[in-house]
Model the fold of this input.
Amino acid sequence: MNQTVTVYTSSFCPVCGMVKSFLDSFDITYKEVIVDLNPIARMKVIGKTKRLTVPQTNINGEWISGFDPERMLKILIK
Done:
C-alpha cells in the first residue's frame, strides 16, 4: 500500500526525533517539513491542526499530534 506521510518538525524537538526514529524503524518513507525554517508551512499546519506544537504528523490525510505510535500503526495498516 502506498502511504503518504509528512512529519512537521522543529530543529530542536526531541519528540520529533522519536517520531522520525519510529517511522525509520518500520522503513516508512516520509517527508519532513522543518517549520522553524519555513514560516508558511508553520502557518498551514497550525491552520489545519489548530495546534502550535510539533511534531504534527499527517498520515494519509489523518493528523497525529505528538508521539503516538499506537495510533500511527493503526492508520498505517488500514
Observations:
- The domain at 5-76 is CATH 3.40.30.10 (Glutaredoxin).
